[in-house]
Amino acid sequence: MRRPVSALLIVSAVLVAGVAVGRSNGPLPGWFSAILPATADPSPGQPAATGPIVYYRDPDGSNYSLAPKKTASGKEYLAVRSSEDVSFEEKAPETMTAKGGQPGRIRFYRNPMGLPDTSPTPKKDSMGMDYLPVYEGEQDDDSSVKVSAGKLQKAGVQTEVAELRTLNTMVRAPGTVEEDERRKSVVSLRFEGFIDTVENVTTGTHVHKGQPLMRIYGPNLSSAAAEYLSALDGRATGALPIQALKGARRRLENLGAPETFIADIERTREVPVYVIWPAPQDGEIVERTAVNGMRAAPGEVLFRIADHNVVWVMVDVAERDLALIEVGQKVTVRPRAYPDRPFIGKVTVIYPHLKAETRTARIRIELPNPDEVLRPDMYADVEIATGTVAPVVTVSSSAVIDSGERQLVLLDKGDGRFEPRAVKLGRRGDGRVEIKEGLAANDKVVVSANFLIDAESNLKAALKGLDTGEKPQ
User: Fold this and answer.
1) Which residues, in sequence order, are CB contacts of 58 under 8 Å at separation 6+?
2) Closest CA to 366 of 385, 345, 349, 384
3) Which residues form the domain of 428?
4) CA distance 59 to 50
5) How many whole angstroms separate alpha carbon 277 and alpha carbon 65?
6) Interatomic CA distance for residues 271 and 262, integer angstroms
7) Higher-confidence residue: 269 or 10?
8) Are 290 and 329 in the same domain?
9) Mean pLDDT of all residues in 257-265
10) What angle do CA 106, 421, 458 make, to 5 degrees?
11) 47: Cβ–Cβ under 8 A, 6 or more apart, which residues?
12) Residue 3, in any domain of the structure
């Protein structure tokens, strides 16, 4: 019977103490603490509250006030000092300092999710998250935002120094090998003739300049040759003036007679029955239409010859890369047939028109081909090296926050303060970007997790707009 009686006495004591606690702000009686040690007053074992009074709280509820106040029952609100305030900042509230180094007072509390909502007293949002305090020293600098060291460490914020570098950009595009238009020729007659025989040359045969291609008989050519021979004989006897001789020779030249044919007339003093027609240049025969015994009309193409010692590579470059390319730049060409054998050429022509369907510009690259392994219509991968000759201010591409309308970087001003800085960008390459305006060499910028600081900066601008009644930009 003694144990039930003891338990009943303890419960009664708890109820009485609960009533007493609900009606008084004083400590519990010593005898009650002895019975229930868990309810003992913890204040003797805790450090005294320090710092200025931040706000006052209702002792019986969750109401707060910036000024001293009483409850409906007449009880005084309890003063809460800065060391007793709880926030999500890594530093304790009493260590938050203003610019002068002194502990700053809390101006207001802001929404933890970044919404433009503030409160003069502590409160919770719809999800139960506590509003974050904003101290007096945090918004004195309109151009910067302060982030606690704990947030920086958790978010993995990293910085680097803007450096002077020679920025190289590689423009890559597919290309096609083509013949050099200046190294092609055709063989045709300026008179009506008959092909007696064609030499042993076919399509694909490499010929040299002056090499015989065919033997031709032409009545008009023979008539002109006889006239020239008569002029030679008349000039030798003094019967004809020099002008007549020159006119006879000019007629042969106008008919396209080879120099060897004219030289034979002057040497032998006879008119050859046939003329041996030579190749006009070095190169490969890419087309042959001449056959033995055929009649050749004036202007009819009998042979096509192309020299492949120098070829062109035609490249279609995207419109956005056109400003990076200049005539004379070195180019590396890797044919698909020989991927491990690069060829070095240079840009010779940038064509004046764009292809409307693909929004590309055509670039001509001149490429030596001494062993003639590059053949027309081959595919090739082209790399055009572009870049700056003088060093320029560059940062990592990840440091730039591009909103579409403007580009920003976050300048590290030290002591956890960051300033959004508008910049003007230039060339890109090797994971870096040129900064034409807005930064100088050795400026420290954020390159990792800059979205967190940018969000803080935008929130600060929004809160400032609420304070002043202006719409944030």
Assistant:
1) 64, 65, 71, 77, 78
2) 345
3) 149-166+391-466
4) 19
5) 112
6) 9
7) 269
8) no
9) 93
10) 40
11) none
12) no
